[in-house]
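Hey,
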Amino acid sequence: MKAVYAAFFRLEKSREIEVGALGKIQFPEGIYVYVGSAMNSVEKRLERHFSRTENKHWHIDYFSAVAQPIDYFILPENSSYECVLSETANAIGEPVDSFGSSDCECKTHLYRIKNR
């Protein structure tokens, strides 16, 4: 299924994580949301995000290898809504610059959800 999704993760303690070409990034503890899209098989994409894959391809692979998966939701929409969902997440989160957004004009697709 083609879809746009948001995947939620918990980082139990602050950590520095090597994120591929982005290098080392300091992540404060907290709840994070990652916004993504899948041109087919969103189920397999989320399964990958929620497992500890050895073959790291995307930025989220590095983060999800350390963070605990919590939950996700799927919107069966085309990928053009990925950036709209990312902009919405920006309203409630602190952006992790350049994370997962190399194929669009968004600043990021990963946000630490602010405490409320």
